[in-house]
Amino acid sequence: MDETLNRYRESIDNIDAALVFMLAERFKVTQAVGEHKATHDLPPADPGREERQITRLRQLALDAKLDPDFTEKFLRFIIDEVIRHHEQLREG
After folding, report:
1. What is the pLDDT of residue 92?
2. How many domains is the chain built from?
3. Residue 23 carries which DSSP code?
4. Is the pLDDT score of 87 beyond 90?
5. Which residues form the domain of 82?
6. Segment (H or E) for 90
7. CATH number of the domain enclosing 76
8. At CB < 8 A and 24+ separation, what contacts does 49-53 make?
9. Which one of 22, 48, 59, 83 is most buried, by most CB atoms within 10 A?
10. In the predicted model, is pLDDT for residue 22 greater than 90?
């Protein structure tokens, strides 16, 4: 097998694992946020914060030479999932 390709793939595997663990940690925190919102009768979504986050992360993507449209789609997917969890918590 091509050793160079093998090393690239090992790096990709390590990065993928780190992404999974980072997402897991993020969802632990957003779960706590959802519980706080439900307890204090706060709305599951905060459109203003979402827009500020998208703007901030689009700029980070540009700085990192990553497609900001891809970054926004990725973030939107995560935000939508978090809101869904928050809505479930609110409904009990």
Report:
1. 81
2. 1
3. H
4. yes
5. 3-91
6. helix 68-91
7. 1.20.59.10
8. 50/79, 53/79
9. 83
10. yes
Encoded amino acid at 81, one letter:
E
Q: How many residues does the chain have?
A: 92
Q: What is the pLDDT of residue 23?
A: 97
Question: What are the structure tokens assigned to 3, written together?
Answer: 């050793």
Q: Buried b / exposed e across 50-76, counting CB within 10 Å, b at 16+?
A: beeebeebbeebeeeeeebeebbeebe
Quote the CA–CA distance of 82 and 60 in Å, as a whole number.
Answer: 21
Question: Tokens 């946020």, residue?
Answer: 33
Tokens of 50: 């979402």
**Tens digit of pLDDT for each residue in 37-79?**
999 999 999 999 999 999 999 999 999 999 999 999 999 999 9
Q: Does residue 6 register a pLDDT over 80?
A: yes
Q: pTM of this prediction? A: 0.84
Residue 85 has a pLDDT of 93
SS3 67: coil
